[in-house]
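Quick start: what a row looks like.
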Amino acid sequence: MAPSPCRAALDIGCGDGALVGKLTRRAERVIGIDTSAEMIERASTDLKARRTCDDAETSFIHGDFLTHPFANERFDFITCVATIHHMDFRAAVERMKSLLQPSGTIAILGLARTSGTRDFLYDAAGFLTTRMMRLRRDYFDPGAPIADPMMTFIDVERAASELLPGATFRRLVLFRYLLVWRSPEGIEYRAPSCRVALCLRHTREAGKPSGTLSLAHATRFCRSTQFGWHGLAIACPWRW
């Protein structure tokens, strides 16, 4: 799933660092970030114990992914495993896109809330799989902080279609989903619908009643800003 070549990879909510260790085989540099100081300490210790001279450059950050200053760092591959439900989904996805290199890939393995018959069928399969894994002692609890997901699978799929056009969404057993998106333009991604949405939002905040909003209003507003139509679409979406 990781692109090749992969110069830099970021694992959000890295936990005990198991995925960071795997990514060192594909990337030249790997960063893991987690809000749990205990998990970061454990990840650093475990990785040092199994490190080889051929491993990529690795580092761990104790901090909040949404607010941590990554400076000018950009990544070819960003992963987020069982973590995004701890954050605001929209804010997290937009931050990921802002840190992505052109043609980079975002892979989210997330948890969501059951809401329909189809979900219950998947949950039943997940329950049986979990039981078998426990009996075979293949089940492992890394001890990371847990939280109940607020979004349903339908909510996630709808939000993904808006925020990550063209992304693939797969419902999985074990109460999870897989969301993968590859951007052909990275942080300069400018789908026409995103431009209009940004302009409309700015126009509403500028005092235009929603009932009188039009594309003409949006266009005039964009042209009146210091960024212009093109600059507004690129510069603004990652700052809300």
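That is the whole record. The first strand starts at residue 6 and ends at 12. Residues 189-240 have pLDDT under 50 and may be disordered.
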